[in-house]
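Hi P.,

Sorry for the delay on this. The queue was packed all week, but I finally got your sequence through. Input first:
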Amino acid sequence: MSIVAALPTKFILPDLVSHCDFKLRMNRHHKQATAESKRWLFRGDNLSQRSRKAIHGLKAGQLTSMCYPDAGFPQLRVCCDFMNYLFHLDNLSDDMDKAGTKSIANVVLNSLHHPYDYYSPARLNRMTKDFYKRMLPTASRGASRRFIETMDFFFQAVHVQAIDRAKGVIPDLESYISLRRDTSGCKPCWALIEYANNLDIPDEVMEHPIIQSLGEAANDLVTWSNDIFSYNVEQSKGDTHNMISVVMHQECLDIQCAVDFVGELCKQSIDRFNENRGLIPSWGPKIDKDVAIYVGGLADWIVGSLHWSFDTTRYFQNSGREVKRTRVVSLFPRSE
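Then the structure:
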């Protein structure tokens, strides 16, 4: 008599919230910025009721307000608009082939490089120029350049991801991690930390190995934890561009062991961030103050993204609070 192993119906999340002891704060302008940003996103788009409900449940304004808690209202509003816009791009790229990603990248990057001259009938042209022209007056030249450069990296990586998807390729873990650091969209958000806090940090400081390592550790935590939280939704759609799927495939692990494996990497990324924070060199009082604010902004992103993941309906529908308390996730059935 053969015994067929039952497929898992649930898995347990790692306790990342307890491992992160950074203070969670909320920007005092969050309600106004959130409301205005959603109106901005809805303007000129015939979204279905279902799509509008998903955007309300996304709570991108809450995420932004926890990740940029000290930003003034104009800066927070730009960051909120970009966050809604970034999730919009992420949703578009999920359904796109390589030709589609190229055409979107072309519109967005031209809009950023030529915000006063370039015109396209695409709605993304208007949206991109609108938030970027509001960012330009107070953003430092370095922050603006880093923002555009990292948006370019984002589209290059999304293009590779679209090719892998089309071929049904599951990359090895090392390749996936390298690609995911750009598909996450975190890097332009790090440039917005400079903008939101009115920082003007010299390029040689931003390019210092310790500052780069801090940004990478924050990116890894936000991205890898997101892969854990989003795995249930993605596996139900058959999407394998997720670290859990990659680890299961490469290490021949079941879901729970893969989740534990990635959870341990997440905890190590927080530890790596804290270790590097103690190794920041000095560049003099003015720069040191700005660097401390920037690194604090990375910490805000780490703690803010962890807590937001249970408040949004994007990953756990309406049961986020219960999942946060029990850490038990019931697997969704695979959709046809």
